[in-house]
Amino acid sequence: MALKITVIGTGYLGATHAAAMAEIGFEVLGLDIDPAKIEMLADGRVPMYEPGLEDLLRKHVAGIEGSTGRLRFTTSWEEAGDFGDVHFVCVNTPQKQGEYGCDMSFVDAAFGALAPHLRRPCLVVGKSTVPVGSAERLSRLLAERSPAGADVELAWNPEFLREGFAVQDTLRPDRIVVGVESERAEKVLREVYEVPVGEGAPFVVTDFPTAELVKTAANSFLATKISFINAMAEVCEAAGGDVARLAEAIGYDERIGAKFLRAGIGFGGGCLPKDIRAFMARAGELGADQALTFLREIDSINMRRRGQMVGMAREALGDGTFLGKRVAVLGAAFKPDSDDVRDSPALNVAGQIHLQGGQVTVYDPKAMDNARRVFPTLAYADSALEAVRGADVVLHLTEWREFRELDPEELGGVAGARVILDGRNALDAELWRSAGWTFRAMGRPRA
Ligand code: UDX
């Protein structure tokens, strides 16, 4: 009989995972403690912007016309405990307030609430990004608190999906990593992932600590790549070099690889910044802090870039002050194809300029509501053209396709001054310059 799957936590990761599991063919029950979220999902609506996710959901959510009916949602732990042969835990693990460590309260609460309802043999699979050592602790919790006791097993299966590509990354992952303590757990997970593995995804079996570490190591490596190229951008700025050509040239070396070498205002979002900090904090607890001191530098290069963008904007204004100046900011999301503004470099730069007295107007294709919520004192426009109207300087801070397709002539017609700074190295410098704009990009020659 086919396995039945529950997905605990229907945020970014959980909603995508639940829909993907239904797409593969499983009966799926999604649980969240937020009834409003469950109501939306049960209606086939997604609480965030993620390309393709709503369509996938609507294809499977029970009660929607023409759907397979394989996907349902609940707020009942009892129902979830009864339903699942495999329970994926997908709750978030944010940074702790005021410190670097990882806030495990949602994970602990989810395991604590689920365990008393596990009355038959099943596999609980952690997907959240957690400090190494958590799986071992949570496996003891399950054994102690589940009525089925030792028949409830734990596995750790980190998730590597990127926002904006969540559906594609979940259905066709680069690799599947499972931390297991028994052959039975491995067998169950091989069954769950039979389809992507059949399509060529490598299936890597490890112990608990390695599986937990794979995720934080991968994100640390990605963060390191970005901060490395941003450090090179700083040197290029000092020496008069061009970091985009440098990145292209080193990227042809397959050992280095061309991806994640785009210099600019750096990384943000709900994962990379908090994951490297939590990793440092955990290494400290384990007495291995020396191994990760370089991550402090990665973090500090990253944060410095935001200030450097502010400095570039101030300089571009000529008289060294934002007072009385209009600044148009294109982009608020931490990256394109997402409405997520968590730790967004774009919004941070906009905020800094606002706090220094500039009149900032922001436009983003999808993240306006979220941006307004976290930064209500900024001005917001309904289009790029409106944001740029009367601006003394334009900052391009999130590389949406819409911005790459802007017409410099049209924007020049409404801008106060034709000055644009590319904080993402994504615009066509020649195109803007030929329309009479002063164009500057981070880590690249002036003209
Ligand atoms: C990341 C990991 O990529 C993913 O595997 C993990 O599961 C979650 O964290 P995500 O946060 O969605 O995914 O974004 P990602 O595409 O990795 O970008 C992170 C940040 O780095 C963005 O702010 C992006 O703008 C920035 N970035 C990325 C650069 O500044 N330069 C680059 O070359 C690439």
TrEMBL record:
Superkingdom of origin: Bacteria
Binding residues for NAD(+): D32, K37, T93, T129, E163, K274, R342
Native source organism of the sequence: Streptomyces fradiae ATCC 10745 = DSM 40063
Lineage of the organism: Bacteria, Bacillati, Actinomycetota, Actinomycetes, Kitasatosporales
Protein name, as recorded: UDP-glucose 6-dehydrogenase
Pfam families: UDPG_MGDP_dh (PF00984), UDPG_MGDP_dh_C (PF03720), UDPG_MGDP_dh_N (PF03721)
Residues bound to substrate: F160, L161, R162, E163, K215, F260, L261, R262, A263, G264, G268, K335
Single GO MF annotation: NAD binding
Functional pathway: Nucleotide-sugar biosynthesis; UDP-alpha-D-glucuronate biosynthesis; UDP-alpha-D-glucuronate from UDP-alpha-D-glucose: step 1/1
